[in-house]
Amino acid sequence: MRFGFIGLGDLGHAMAAMLPDPLCVYDVSAPAMEPFRNRAVLATSAGDVGRHADLIGLCVRNDQDVCDVISGPDGLIHHAASGTIVAIHSTVMPETVTAQAAIAAQHGIMVFDAAVSGSAQDALDKRQVCMVGGDEATISAALPLLEAFSRQIVHAGSLGQGMVLKFANNLTTYLQLAATVESYALVEAAGIDPALLTRVMTDNENLNRMMKLYQQYRAAHADEDGNSPFWIAQQALAGLAEKDLHHAIEAGARQGLTLRAAEAVRANIRQIITK
């Protein structure tokens, strides 16, 4: 089995690093491929990965990038062999998954969604949770890729359902994030030692591990100016939150749901986490 990976950002790099040989990688940024030079084929395009791999993971920025990689002018459908399997790890709309899967199927290529939850370090520690949508046979054939960086693989249902499960998980994460930041702001403004809130919410389990680590990290950088790496990262996090919450809100609307808490947090998340 030959592995491929497209999209070598922070998360994609870590996921690709866990894949067995033989491996082929591609990123639009040539420097992002350099760490793989001594162990992988460095493709010249996304489509070129299709010439060197039959099990490929995608971790690109957005829906349009996924479409370009799979069915664009130099996309995988023009170069990959029949029987190739493509896992979409990017957080995209379910309709993007189903549309690209339908196009790819005309070329004998199987596409499914494999959304992930966890950090780059979680991928390196093989602790990602992978939420998949698609048929059992395709997912089973893709397990060597998914198991390389995941501790749990959850089959949500048909194509696109893995993404909906990821949206719901992200919704909880960002609502918790907003609540955590504002809870600490409240006690600090009242002159209460924030360590006491940590103690209370740890004991009653309101504060999960990720939020506790985030708040500790945030407190350690609180005195830095707005141009520090930490606060620049918070701006990036706010942008990601806005995108992910938009996906959740749109998915809810397609089911006739109005996700009011999601709408409120999306409208205010940048101000909440960057102030």
Automatic annotation (TrEMBL):
Keyword Iron: no
One Pfam match: NAD_binding_2
Gene3D superfamilies the record matches: N-(1-d-carboxylethyl)-l-norvaline Dehydrogenase, domain 2 (1.10.1040.10), NAD(P)-binding Rossmann-like Domain (3.40.50.720)
Key words of the record: NAD, Oxidoreductase
Domain spans labelled 6-phosphogluconate dehydrogenase NADP-binding: 3-157
Transmembrane feature ranges: none
Residue ranges constituting the 3-hydroxyisobutyrate dehydrogenase-like NAD-binding domain according to the UniProt record: 160-270
GO molecular function: NAD binding; NADP binding; oxidoreductase activity
Claim: Iron-sulfur is one of the keywords in the record: no
Catalytic residues (UniProt): K166
PANTHER family: 3-HYDROXYISOBUTYRATE DEHYDROGENASE-LIKE 1, MITOCHONDRIAL-RELATED
Protein name in UniProt: 3-hydroxyisobutyrate dehydrogenase-like beta-hydroxyacid dehydrogenase
Organism: Sphingosinicella soli
